[in-house]
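Propose amino acids for all 402 sites.
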């Protein structure tokens, strides 16, 4: 830019001096001097303007570079994606009492340095119970660390560490959030997946006004491996094995459309641990209230469904049959049916009806007719076995997802 300015000035000077060389006499010389002075002033003014233009151009370039840098920084900065859900409902069961339930989840995910994805979530839950045999109402409030994990992909393998959701099969044994695990999901082929996990079955309560135990609730070692093959978008089958100390589980599952809107899914699980530990409240140990059968326990669920409640105005009906032995699960909190099954066993039918009131909201009615499924060989500390008893419930709930 400086060379261009210099060339312009020299050119203008030469053009103004040329007439002087060809005119003689004092008057002509004086007039020429006046013309040169005027031209010099004009050149100086032009030079100042060119300098101002240079400065303006430099300032514009600086602003442009700053804008580009800011835009690049915003583009590379981690973007947080928010999601969540709410659930409100009323449940009535065989104790002839009702419970009003309210629950909300807030989840956030982001990608850090274009490499690691991070998730953080909280769940708030409140349950108010009507007066029961104790002649008073009660309330339970909980805050749970729904998820707090970091994940990364290594080609076809996705590794995740921290509090996360673990789900195997149709969820009869494991379908739970807030589980502390190291997991790896290996996409072997477009249709074959291997899923493994190792960690603890803790549930990460941040606040639980019903937990008065000291020391905190004892956790158990949890390990699993699952293989699944997808035959199509809606048809799959798989098997898994794992341990939830001291129990050892082997399961198979699958789901497939039948015809039109009809479909079927099922899961079978077997617990090969025969030595059931007693529950000892004195040292906060884990265990069962009734033991002694010393044999394998098993259970299964079969679900027949029609339709799918996803978009506004759509609906579905699901019929289920469950048959679970006593002592199949020590703690039902990890099952997808945790509102119904317990260590006492479960045998009966369920009916679920869903209607999508909008694209993100759903009204559901769940009804179960069942009874406990005890084994007379299992007894308590006084030698008494568990008697079979009714186990039914009705649950009306409204859910939202956003």
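Proposal:
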């Amino acid at each position: 830019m400086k060379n261009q300015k210099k060339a312009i000035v020299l050119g203008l000077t030469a053009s103004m001096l040329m007439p002087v060389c060809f005119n003689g006499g004092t008057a002509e010389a004086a007039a020429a001097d006046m013309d040169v002075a005027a031209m010099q002033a004009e050149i100086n003014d032009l030079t100042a303007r060119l300098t101002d233009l240079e400065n303006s151009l430099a300032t514009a370039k600086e602003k442009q570079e700053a804008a580009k840098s800011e835009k690049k920084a915003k583009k590379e900065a981690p973007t947080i994606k928010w999601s969540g859900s709410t659930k409100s409902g009323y449940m009535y069961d065989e104790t002839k009492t009702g419970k009003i339930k309210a629950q909300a989840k807030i989840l956030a995910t982001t990608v850090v340095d274009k490499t690691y994805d991070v998730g953080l979530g909280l769940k708030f839950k409140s349950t108010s119970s009507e007066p029961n045999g104790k002649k008073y109402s009660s309330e339970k409030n909980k805050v749970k660390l729904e998820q707090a994990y970091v994940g990364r992909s290594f080609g076809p393998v996705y590794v995740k560490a921290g509090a996360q959701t673990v789900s195997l099969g149709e969820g009869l044994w494991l379908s739970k959030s807030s589980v502390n695990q190291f997991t790896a999901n290996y996409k072997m082929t477009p249709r074959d997946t291997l899923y493994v996990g190792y960690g603890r079955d803790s549930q990460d309560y941040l606040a639980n006004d019903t937990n008065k135990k000291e020391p905190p609730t004892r956790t158990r070692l949890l390990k699993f491996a699952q293989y699944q093959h997808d035959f199509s978008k809606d048809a799959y089958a798989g098997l898994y094995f794992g341990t939830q100390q001291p129990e050892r589980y082997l399961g198979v599952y699958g789901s497939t459309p039948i015809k039109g809107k009809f479909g079927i899914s099922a899961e079978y699980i077997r617990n090969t641990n025969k030595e059931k530990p007693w529950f000892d409240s004195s040292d906060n140990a884990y265990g069962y209230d009734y033991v002694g059968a010393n044999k394998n326990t098993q259970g299964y669920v079969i679900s027949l469904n029609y339709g799918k409640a996803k978009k506004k105005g759509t609906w579905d009906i699901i019929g289920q049959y469950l048959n679970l032995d006593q002592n199949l699960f020590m703690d039902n909190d990890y099952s997808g049916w945790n509102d119904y099954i317990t260590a006492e066993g479960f045998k009966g039918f369920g009916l679920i009806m869903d209607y999508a009131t909008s694209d993100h909201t759903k009204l559901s009615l769940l009804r179960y007719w069942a009874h406990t499924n005890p084994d007379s060989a299992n007894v308590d500390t006084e030698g008494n076995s568990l008697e079979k008893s009714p186990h039914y419930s009705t649950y009306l709930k409204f859910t939202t997802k956003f």
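The two ends are 58 Å apart (CA to CA). The first helix runs from residue 2 to 21.
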